[in-house]
């Protein structure tokens, strides 16, 4: 996967990958099997690139019984270029959402079910990442933002099945 990814990024310069993807690709070692995708923790590795390349993972491992594999592959795919919890958990989120769509799961459940998978990803990372202290410091941000979003939309509980949006859902106003 590393070799193919580096080749594609180099062949498609007009695609303009985010800065974390460029930095991550520079550190990949496609000809070294043992270290091919091991990149150091990246304080700024939280761009959108990890999420954008994970859709195909959700299609490949869409069945509920493949959840463990989906978690492992999406986290590792994200870590290749975005070795920061916000980056590789974004990869997991995208893969999960695609798998939920393929399963026909109601949209209102996606965020809750994704948050249920995050502890499984955390356990996987504890087994596979040597120095987890840097990651732990930033892990909470991803979960907290999603929990806040679900609460804001009034869909954080299993009994809540209709998302609430403000009457004026204007992006410019929201970002002030």
Automatic annotation (TrEMBL):
<comment type="similarity">
    <text>Belongs to the ADP-ribosylglycohydrolase family.</text>
</comment>
<dbReference type="InterPro" id="IPR050792">
    <property type="entry name" value="ADP-ribosylglycohydrolase"/>
</dbReference>
<dbReference type="Pfam" id="PF03747">
    <property type="entry name" value="ADP_ribosyl_GH"/>
</dbReference>
<dbReference type="GO" id="GO:0016799">
    <property type="term" value="F:hydrolase activity, hydrolyzing N-glycosyl compounds"/>
</dbReference>
<dbReference type="InterPro" id="IPR036705">
    <property type="entry name" value="Ribosyl_crysJ1_sf"/>
</dbReference>
<dbReference type="InterPro" id="IPR005502">
    <property type="entry name" value="Ribosyl_crysJ1"/>
</dbReference>
<protein>
    <submittedName>
        <fullName>ADPRHL1 isoform 4</fullName>
    </submittedName>
</protein>
